[in-house]
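User: For a benchmark we're assembling, each entry needs the component sequences followed by a predicted structure for the full assembly. Here are entry 17's components. Please fill in the structure.
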Amino acid sequence: MDFWLSDDERDLQDGIRSFLLGRFPIDVVRAGEEQPGVIDRDRWRELAATGVFSVAADIGMRAAVLVFEELGRALVPGPLAASALAAAWVSGTATGDTIVGVLETLDDPVLVEHPAQVDVLLIVSDEGLLRLDASALTMHTIERPLDTLTPVAVVRRPLPAATRVDTSSAARQFERDAVVLTSALQLGVALGATHLAQEYAKQREQFGRPIGGFQAVKHLLADMLVKSEVARSAVYAAACAVDGAGTDDAYRAASVAKVMAGEAALFCGKTGIQVHGGMGFTWEVHAQRYWKRAVALDNSFGIIDHHAAIIAATL
Amino acid sequence: MDLCYTAEEDTFRSELRAWLADVLPHVPPEPPTHEWAARRVWDTAWQQMLFEAGYAGINWPTEYGGRGATPTEHLIFLEETERARAPYVGMNFVGLLHAGPTLVVEASAEQKAAHLPPILRGEHVWCQGFSEPSAGSDLAALRCRAIRDGDHYVISGQKIWTSFAHVADYCEILVRTDTDVPKHRGITWLIMPMDSAGIDVRPLRTMDGGIEFSEMFLDEVRVPVANRVGDENDGWRVAMTTLSFERGTAFVSELLQTMELVADLAELAKHITRRSALAWDDAGLRRDLGKVAAELDALWALTRRNISEASRTGLVGAGGNVFKLAYTDLRHRLGEIAMHLLERASLSMDDIDELPSGRHVHGRIHGLKMTIAAGTSQVQRNIIGERLLGLPKER
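Assistant: Structure for entry 17:
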């Protein structure tokens, strides 16, 4: 047993981190807030060129979660998980030419993320995996999405007919893998929020000293680190399970990862705002962006309560 | 990253499993918690069996009679013994996991020869005399005084939270040997025989009504200078060497027991009614238990991560503090779920007929201890904040 990053895995993660720091620094990501559609197609293809949308299939889930953790930390917007897992049913995903999203739930209101830019939508249903061209949908764009970097539209009924492209077990597997990748994004969000708050607490002074020296603040940051590190273990363990590198059940491990990383992202998001005080409530400071993404990701591929219920059913 | 066990690790596991299946039917039933004399016999008899089978001192170096197992083998040992419901380390805890490892690193050849084999064979029980009434989280502030008198130290003072003091043969004790220097630099580590004159052990009744710890009053207890481990006034460093033995395995048995507790609570909820409905029909209860179960799986993953780090680097880094904070906090939440499920039965610390209220109420109380013992959650958060996040110290 060696549940620790190998040299290759560390190199991979360092590599994607430097790439994102260079090409997707927070100021560039933020600029998307001022652009219609948020996603820059050229940059999406750049992501593809680094292997973001092929790493899961080509190398495996362990490599993929390390990459997705960094994408989450950098707040890179877009339907990353679905696009990285759709190659078997949609052409052009690996090169970044096709952007693939999902219809999460058919309960009203049905919300589609990135409505202006997503090309194909997949639906996980009891009958199997279904495919729908996004252009066939009638949608009403929401003017003020919670996360400006995750625009949404309401789908008007009736829904157009979808094409069945694979079996229900394939659909279940797609969903499981998407849960794991999404939990890796959430882990990254938690770590990013923690790092921002940590740096702020070291330099922000009140009462003549850095606020990070006060236990009331220090302990909030310690809790952020604890939740993030527990989540990291769950996410990496789920990736091992999917890759068959161990005997854990992959479906259960995926739900565990989604619960733990979801809670870590939401906790670190809100606590990061608190540590920043009044500045945390401003549009300018990034703290709020981590929390908003945490909410968006919790609602991707099943919220915490949904996955907690799945785990409870195994007790 | 790989959670697969190697062929050697699998062999270690299957041999251990076979041995456990062979010997456990011959282990007598566990004596009641507070029958100390009987428990000493039971705990040390198990240690003797481990010794004869070559499993004693699983993580100790082979040159001192240990098995020299890897951190992963240590994990497997704890996992298999727990799953087979073998006896736990019990009152051999201090000797095997604390005093013994300290002696391995710091003691003289004579001290090692005198003390290590009896610990491994289950012949000597040790206790720990570290904490004092005014030196808890601030352990280095300890005041129990040792004054040199020829070839003896004469010790006077008070210790508290001393587990197994009334059945122990030896005590690893920290004493103040210099009051004129900064607090960490005037402490000495001694081996104190518990049959020395002047030791008064008084049981300390805890909130569950039982006796788990003692207070120890020392009145001019004479301990030979030859029993000093390390140099005079270097005891703080000696005491800290035990930390270098930590391989991320400290909570393995606890964690597995807690997983079982969650499964048993779910089973209980499926069999009891609350206001004419099956307790398990409550989606809120299922969700709460599902979250706890998820976190336990995550902590099992964190355990394997910490052990893998120890295998690579010889040490557990941040993971040890992270684990303790998260696990002990979880015990509080789990305890509260159990108390809510029991409702009025939570007023009983005994089982009520078939209802295991006693077990679950004791589990709840155990949680109250866990966020305090071995470094309170507040101290853990300070350590994480200052050492891992680089935040300024409060002082």
